[in-house]
Fold each of these.
Amino acid sequence: MMMYKNIYNKRGIEPKNVASDFALPELFFSITDPKGIILTGNDVFQRVSKFERDELIGKPHNIIRHPDVPRAVFKAVWNTIKQGKPFVGYVKNMAKDGSYYWVLAAIYPVINEEGKIEKYISIRLKPSSKMFELIPSFYKNVLEVELKNDMDTALQFMLEKLKELGFDSYEEFAKQAFFQEIQSREKLLANKQDMSCQVDLSNVIAQNTDFIDLLCSLETIFFRLNRYFNEIFGKVNLFLNLNEELNNKSKFIYELAEDIRLLSLNASIESYKIKKEGVSFSTLSHEMRKNAELSERKILQLSKIIDNTKKDIEDIGFNILTSKLVIEMITFFIKEMINNLSEKRIKDEKQKEVINSINELFSLLVVYSNNLSKNVDASKSQLRSMFYNIQELNVLINRLDFIHINGLIESAHTKEEGGGFTIIFSQMLKLIEAAKNEIINLETSISGASEENLTVNLITEIAQQKIVRLQKEYKEVFRSYV
Ligand SMILES: Cc1cc2nc3c(=O)[nH]c(=O)nc-3n(C[C@H](O)[C@H](O)[C@H](O)COP(=O)(O)O)c2cc1C
């Protein structure tokens, strides 16, 4: 209870330990100006926050701020979105009457042609994943640190705790949370969504028919489009796993190149120390160095390709999730409007606002599906060259393996002088063994990803064509309302 007296309780309303609930299929959005002033939002947002519409519009978004959320979280929000990057995170909000509701919020900056941030769009869903279970107590701990110290200490504490949970940065945590939440929601809602345009025409008043017809046709189009993104979503896990694997492997692979170089250098130093058997050893160590150099070069090349590909692969995951979320938000909103508006006369102002919101959300879909298309296209050739490089590296590693087995046999024949060699050779063999395992795994994932990438590429292209066509077809219709 002491928590509730904290300094972030700005509205002076006593927070209640009562949920302002909403259903899992419900999605809500709000659009703000660059300062976070609410311009519009959908009905679920209004219902769950328990404010009247005109109490929300024109107000700063902190109107629903809950004192349980550390400032550090909002600092992270604004740091990210002000740079034009999207933010994903859990937020506890407070409704007008003090009740609370948790959301997973994705906030997207809308950037205009001059590269300036024009608006922000936030899409929210009900958290349902295992990951979310950790969040309330996690925020409580962060808040305690923040109230005792300051926001920067809390931010630091938050990052340390995330590290303990296995996330190297807030972004990594956010991406994982985004995926877990969308996946969990998808599983729980399986087959429960009927998205077809179901409107009881006898309830639609005559003046509304044209507008409701328009919404219905839009809903049908977006619903069809959604099938493509659902299909692509089925592949998202593969890209997220590959991203994690590339992150882990690129470190390992880089270190491997260093180790190989160091050990082969040691081997050639050892070979100079040996007088009698020195001849055969120095030939061996020459071979070894030559191959080690080649392998090192290949490994560094591979590591560079991995670095270049990582960003695209990472973005594929995020862009798939975003495209899916946005298109679901659009279909949900249209459906919501059809249901809520049919029975009363829809004013021109309202029609304009609805079309404007659909247009804003649609623009977001255009941006992110376009990005997805670009990432998938770029990673196509990157994955291919990664695959070839790995195969070449395999050949080199096998040759190194052969040289070292020979070396080990040779050094076993010599007496004390061979001791240094034996150690180096067995170290090298261990290293090679480890390298082989890592490389085989990577080879398998890359070849799998390459194939799936082609499928995603194909589906994205079709979806993209449909989006362009939709944009053209409805441009005039949208314009006539704005
Ligand atoms: C698009 C958008 C959506 C936001 N949604 C929320 C929200 O749901 N809840 C919230 O408390 N803050 C939200 N914020 C952040 C608020 O603007 C604000 O930073 C936060 O409530 C902290 O307020 P304070 O600095 O007055 O403590 C949002 C900001 C933007 C730009």
Amino acid sequence: MSLTLYGFDGSAYVRTVKMLLVEKAADFDQVQVNVMKGEPHLPEHLARHAFGKVPVIDHDGFRVIETGAITAYLDEVLPGTSLTPDNARDRARSRMAQGIYDSYGYGSLVSVFGYHLFPDFIGGQNEDSRRQGIEKSKLVLRELMKIKGNDPFIAGQALSIGDLYLAPGCAYMSMTPDAQQVFAIEGFGDWWERIQALPSYKATPPQ
Ligand SMILES: N[C@@H](CCC(=O)N[C@@H](CS)C(=O)NCC(=O)O)C(=O)O
């Protein structure tokens, strides 16, 4: 079995996939396609992902792009504990988290942590966009914590792909002076402690 992950360790979406691979104790190679250097837009990578994004995986010659498809595929084909809940409602909770993160979360979080950490990558420091990003990030975390309810993880008693979506963006947010206000959401603190304690989180720092 050969498994290659294309994408560098600075990418939040790549980290989602990498956390899953660590959770599964999978053997894999990684090609550090660097977003900051524009490498996803080089012809070599556009041949893998026509829209110039990471992550991409290659599993025994089978290519998968898009984090939702990649995580679902790897969860199914790799041995180890499933990261897909075993009942319809919890699967819906995990998928709602994925969808909310993709549609409303990632962009909002990036407009805040990018402002502080990678201003060039987001086209410069825009104060309005940072402020709107803070409000929208809080809304996203509030909704995700409602989905979590009193459970330890977003989709119930066990870690799921939904948690792996949210964790890397929160890791970047935690490095900024805006973290305190963005993270001041009921239920978030306990969830965040639990995530930071995961070996798969500790093993995948952004670089
Ligand atoms: N829809 C994609 C989004 C992936 C994505 O946005 N990746 C970012 C890095 S976290 C990227 O490749 N950005 C490169 C660029 O936009 O130039 C997925 O689900 O995998």
